[in-house]
Amino acid sequence: xxxxxxxxxxxxxxxxxxxxxxxxxxxxxxxxxxxxxxxxxxxxxxxxxxxxxxxxxxxxxxxxxxxxxxxxxxxxxxxxxxxxxxxxxxxxxxxxxxxxxxxxxxxxxxxxxxxxxxxxxxxxxxxxxxxxxxxxxxxxxxxxxxxxxxxxxxxxxxxxxxxxxxxxxxxxxxxxxxxxxxxxxxxxxxxxxxxxxxxxxxxxxxxxxxxxxxxxxxxxxxxxxxxxxxxxxxxxxxxxxxxxxxxxxxxxxxxxxxxxxxxxxxxxxxxxxxxxxxxxxxxxxxxxxxxxxxxxxxxxxxxxxxxxxxxxxxxxxxxxxxxxxxxxxxxxxxxxxxxxxxxxxxxxxxxxxxxxxxxxxxxxxxxxxxxxxxxxxxxxxxxxxxxxxxxxxxxxxxxxxxxxxxxxxxxxxxxxxxxxxxxxxxxxxx
Length: 430
Ligand code: SAM
Description:
Radius of gyration: 23 Å
Structural class: alpha+beta
Largest sheet: 7 strands, mixed
Bound molecules: S-adenosylmethionine
Mean pLDDT: 92
């Protein structure tokens, strides 16, 4: 449903319910990101609904205890910051297509971009919802870090790497609010430049077949690390690898105590240089301690898994060491299924509805507690064998008593909780 045509020197672009006009070639617009914007609208719609209900319930409980009646979620303000807005298209679409948004700030450092945003919000009659801001994204977010000024949601959609914006962003989202982050520097995240990845994200990337999911897990680890500094932590609700970028949607919560659980959500990754086998080594572990007064109390101790040896147990070669990565779940399946329902019910409103439905259905099926995956043909290619049909491979894993799924991040992916020796045994039978 995207149409571009020339109106008196300006390019007119229709996407969703927005029509924007761009007169300067210096203002960034990428039609390929329509999927990213559609998906973000669907996620925000479901998220904001949940958020308002939750906050209204809390407010209601509080007021009831003071003897006041309150049952209206309409009194819950919802504010969104698009910190890197370019044409304003995304903010305009949020204003027109996401219900119950009180205020949106569309910010950009470029003066030309801000002029374009101003024109476009008037042209789309959303100047009552969207305010423009001409500021450095970090400076603007720091001005909003006090909890009375925080945003319900912050969207970061930079060129390349988002890391310089994370410190201010994790401080300026409300408790239980949403941070939406795009990263397009896939070469860095996918192992072409592990040192740069460490410098930017605080984790070493690896050249591995599952690099797209590894990229998601490196970004999530990085956001968690930034949040932890301020006694905050994340809950990833949806993490997507698509085209040339990754996009994560994470809730941010406050709680120094919960931050102690972070090490148990992170792992180092050992990659065998011979057979490519990956072994995860958790950074920490915790278990509930029922003797404590607080039932949520956790006891920290060192990882209980045996350390990864110097040589790979399958082929006796050495390892590369990558990570740390986020090794806890990267989606909230219940949330994903509600986003899927929302898109099914409103499919006529999304130009990329079919694609969203396809990807979210795969996301729902993914084994949530099993990080990373194999790629079928690469696995067999490693030992110079013809590739086994996917169906047969999956049946063999199931017959051996383990679970298996695809990953949305790669064709021919095999996500499984079967130990590597079972996979090699299956390959030997071929
Ligand atoms: N979100 C937009 C969309 O969906 O169409 C695209 C954003 S574009 C990839 C990145 C924008 O960030 C550019 O317009 C650029 O001017 C702006 N930018 C770069 N550095 C910035 C900074 N430090 N603060 C604010 N804006 C910045």
